[in-house]
Design goal:
Layout: H1 2-10, H2 14-54, H3 77-92, E1 100-110, E2 113-124, E3 131-135, H4 139-152, H5 157-166, E4 167-172, E5 177-182
Antiparallel strand pairs: 1-2, 2-3, 4-5
Length: 189
């Protein structure tokens, strides 16, 4: 019996080595596939960042230089930025289309406070991979504003001043995002 036991240790386990080699090859193939996926993801992120830097689908106010060049003589820079934002959104959103409705239940930092969005309505922006989301209780006021932008080419001075007095425009980073935060309440969109 002792001799038999020793002979089993000296004989190569061909089946075990083959299985081990197969496992190593499968692991290597999986690692190479993952490396390709990571590189593709990096390439997509680079393309998205380059597109955002070139301003391919973003309003002027998000790009370098802001909306100051298009400002009316009576407008402050905040009013010009707000006008540019609403103009961009009005051109890209079909508010006659039924929006998607969702519940956003996570708090996040926005400016100097923590906010919770709650129930939101959302429209896709035409011609780009962006979405326009509004708290459901503000959707009526925002859609009226966008209709006014489409019909009249811009907001009148009083409407624009009302928006800039009550709301603060915040640009998100590192991802392209624009938020309007109410200056004295928890409302934002």
């Amino acid at each position: 019996p002792l001799l038999h036991l020793m002979s089993s240790f000296t004989q190569p386990d061909v089946l075990g080595i083959t299985e081990l080699r197969d496992m190593v090859e499968r692991g290597r193939a999986e690692a190479e596939a993952m490396a390709r996926q990571v590189q593709e993801a990096r390439d997509r992120v680079g393309a998205l960042r380059a597109g955002a830097k070139e301003g391919a689908s973003m309003p002027k106010l998000i790009r370098s230089g802001g909306a100051g060049a298009d400002r009316q003589p009576w407008q402050s820079s905040m009013e010009a930025d707000m006008q540019a934002l609403f103009s961009f959104v009005a051109q890209k959103v079909d508010v006659a289309r039924e929006p998607d409705v969702f519940e956003h239940q996570h708090a996040f930092p926005l400016g100097d406070r923590i906010v919770e969005l709650g129930r939101m309505v959302q429209w896709p922006l035409e011609g780009c991979d962006l979405k326009f989301s509004v708290p459901s209780h503000l959707a009526g006021a925002v859609t009226r504003c966008l209709h006014e932008m489409k019909e009249g080419g811009g907001l009148d001075a009083a409407s624009l001043r009302g928006w800039t007095t009550g709301w603060e425009l915040l640009i998100g980073a590192p991802e392209p995002a624009v938020f309007l935060k109410h200056r004295s309440t928890a409302y934002q969109f």
